Every structure is written in structure tokens, then in C-alpha cells.
């Protein structure tokens, strides 16, 4: 293996440790939905796993069945399914047949045949997309140094609208505002510098207001109704009109690096590492801790999550875990192993 190839492998190893874990949530029946990107469309889950996207039939969540996969030599990280379309970020890799380099990109795939995604467009990126959000008629791609905005009126032929000269780690949106966060932390000292931008929609060159915070990690954000849920070292609920005063709303509920969030009408599910923590959100401004479970074996961490119907879907390094939400406490309903 040459030096160039070794450097690519080192980059992939670093990405798996440093990049924030992706967040996905409730099925997006419309891209106007304020929930995070989801890997579920209809009766199928599109699970990013290494150099392929596993296609799992979840028409019966108690008996899920892997029915196919979409394979490239790149490493898939973020995915979002919207209707009959799937967007997926792909990191550097190698063609399994020729050994040729595969560059980072965002792929646009048609799901007109849900068992056989078909590539319709490839969107260039600088290095490594950290977050994707298809909201309304626009796709936002948060790259390593910039954020590109594409018009998706015709998903088969995305049109670049603007490129913002800022990087973001996480994206979430309401009907008229995009919220974008970033955090730079020194894991040795624990010092963090973070920011949240409040960007008016539809997208223009106007990046709106920025709120900057020192020594306050922000691993994930989720806009829901009039609140912004912030997962840092703790879970906080901040009114959208009070973002400048985020510190005043810091909660005591534990959270951690790579936290994933998803919600139902009165519950918030926070997963980080291999734990799942459940909160009562009957009062959206005061998430109340209910209980937590160890949802996977030790040394496992979750990379994606989604809620669809009465089931919670969590993706680990080795499987798709399915949990039933209908009881007093969640319980494991099924598992699809990818090892």
C-alpha cells in the first residue's frame, strides 16, 4: 500500500472518532418537518453502514428483513430519506473492483424502486460533510469549512443556490428559520468554543444572528415547536427567542458526546454511547428524567436513530436495534445484525 493510500486510511480513522455522530429522527412525511433527517421512508429503512447502505424491510417491525444494499467504495455517514428520494454523504474510499480512489460527495438517489436505489446526481464537497438537512425545497450540506445550499425543486437535478463561508456540525429548522451549531473542543483540557446561528429562511446571503459560547459544548440541537433542545454535557430546553441566554437554561439531565435526540408527543429519547435515556416532555420547557437503559453491549455506540410509528430504531456499529415504545418502558423488539 502506498503512502497516499495509508494517509486516506488515517483520515478515515480520525473521522470515525472526531466527527459528531449523526442524528436522525421521526419519519419526514414532508421535508417541511422540523425533525432531524431520517433514514426511514415508507416500509424501508436505509441504514448507512461502512461502505454500503443496508435496505431493511420494516413493514413488520417485529420481523425486519434485509432485502438489499447499495454499495460503493466510500464510507457512508449521513443519510436522509424524503419521499421517494434519499441523500447520502459519502467519505473517501476505494473502488472495490479497481482500487481507484472514490472522492467524498453527497449522493442523490431515487427510491422509485425502494429496494434498488438509483443514483441520479453527485454533489461535490470539499472534504467531509458533517450534517445534511433537506428542508422544504432546499438541501443544506454542512461541509468541513463551508455550507452549500441546493435548490431541490427537481431532486434529480439539484441546483447550487449559495455557499455560506462557515462550517456547522448540526442543522435543524422550523418553518422560517434554520438553526446551525458548531463546537470546537479540546478533549484533553475539556475547553470548548461553541456557537449557534439563527438563519432566516428561505436561504440568502444573510446568515442572521450568531450566539457564541465559551466552555460550553454543543453536540446536538433539535428545534421543536417553540423550543431548542440542546445536548451538551447536559440536556437543555431553551425557548427559541432566548438563545442568547442559553447558559441560563442549562439542565441537570446528563448527556454526552455524540448524543442523538428524537421525540414523540410527550417523550424525548436521548441516546449516547450505548445508553438510552427517556424524558417526559409534557411540559416542553422542562424535560423530566424518567429512566434509562443500557440499549446495547459495552463498547458499543449508536450512530443514527429514528422513530417511526410505535418503534424506535437505533443503529450501532454492528446492527439495527428496534425498540417497542408502547409499554411503560421501552423494550427490545427485534435486531438486524450486519456483521
Please tell me about this protein's structure.
The protein has a four-stranded antiparallel β-sheet with strand order 1-2-3-4, with no helix packed on it. The chain has 339 residues and is mostly beta strands. It has a single domain, classed as Methylamine Dehydrogenase, Chain H, CATH 2.130.10.10. The two termini are 26 Å apart. The chain has one helix at residues 3-18; strands at 40-41, 44-49, 52-57, 65-71, 75-82, 85-91, 93-94, 101-102, 105-110, 118-124, 131-135, 138-142, 147-151, 159-164, 170-173, 177-185, 192-200, 209-214, 220-224, 227-231, 234-239, 253-254, 260-263, 267-272, 275-280, 288-294, 304-308, 311-315, 319-324, 331-337.
Supply the key terms.
339 residues; four-stranded antiparallel β-sheet; 1 helix; 30 strands; 49% strand
Describe the structure concisely for a colleague.
The protein has 339 residues and is mainly beta. It has one helix at residues 3-18, and strands at 40-41, 44-49, 52-57, 65-71, 75-82, 85-91, 93-94, 101-102, 105-110, 118-124, 131-135, 138-142, 147-151, 159-164, 170-173, 177-185, 192-200, 209-214, 220-224, 227-231, 234-239, 253-254, 260-263, 267-272, 275-280, 288-294, 304-308, 311-315, 319-324, 331-337.
Amino acid at each position: 500500500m502506498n503512502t497516499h493510500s495509508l494517509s486516506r486510511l488515517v483520515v478515515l480513522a480520525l473521522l470515525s472518532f472526531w466527527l459528531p455522530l449523526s442524528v436522525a429522527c421521526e419519519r419526514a412525511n414532508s421535508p417541511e418537518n422540523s425533525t432531524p433527517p431520517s433514514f426511514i421512508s415508507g416500509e424501508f429503512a436505509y441504514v448507512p453502514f461502512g461502505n454500503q447502505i443496508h435496505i431493511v424491510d420494516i413493514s413488520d417491525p417485529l420481523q425486519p428483513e434485509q432485502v438489499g444494499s447499495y454499495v460503493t467504495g466510500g464510507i457512508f455517514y449521513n443519510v436522509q430519506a424524503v419521499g421517494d428520494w434519499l441523500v447520502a454523504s459519502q467519505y473517501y474510499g476505494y473502488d472495490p473492483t479497481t482500487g481507484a480512489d472514490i472522492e467524498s460527495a453527497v449522493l442523490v438517489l431515487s427510491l422509485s424502486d425502494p429496494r434498488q436505489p438509483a443514483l441520479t446526481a453527485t454533489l461535490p464537497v470539499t472534504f467531509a460533510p458533517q450534517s445534511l438537512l433537506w428542508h422544504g425545497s432546499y438541501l443544506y450540506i454542512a461541509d468541513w469549512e463551508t455550507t452549500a445550499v441546493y435548490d431541490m425543486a427537481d431532486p434529480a437535478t439539484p441546483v447550487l443556490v449559495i455557499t455560506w463561508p462557515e462550517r456547522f456540525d448540526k442543522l435543524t429548522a422550523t418553518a422560517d428559520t434554520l438553526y446551525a451549531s458548531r463546537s470546537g473542543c479540546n478533549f484533553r483540557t475539556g475547553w470548548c468554543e461553541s456557537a449557534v446561528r439563527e438563519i432566516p429562511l428561505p436561504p440568502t446571503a444573510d446568515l442572521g444572528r450568531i450566539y457564541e459560547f465559551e466552555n460550553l459544548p454543543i453536540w446536538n440541537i433539535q428545534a421543536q415547536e417553540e423550543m431548542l433542545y440542546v445536548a451538551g454535557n447536559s440536556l437543555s430546553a431553551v425557548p427559541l427567542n432566548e438563545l442568547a441566554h442559553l447558559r441560563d437554561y442549562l439542565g441537570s439531565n446528563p448527556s454526552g458526546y455524540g448524543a442523538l435526540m428524537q421525540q414523540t408527543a410527550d417523550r424525548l429519547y436521548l441516546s449516547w454511547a450505548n445508553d438510552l435515556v427517556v424524558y417526559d416532555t409534557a411540559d416542553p420547557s422542562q424535560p423530566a428524567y424518567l429512566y434509562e437503559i443500557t440499549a446495547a453491549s459495552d463498547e458499543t455506540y449508536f450512530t443514527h436513530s429514528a422513530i417511526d410509528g410505535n418503534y424506535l430504531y437505533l443503529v450501532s456499529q454492528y446492527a439495527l436495534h428496534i425498540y417497542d415504545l408502547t409499554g411503560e418502558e421501552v423494550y427490545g423488539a427485534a435486531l438486524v445484525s450486519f456483521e
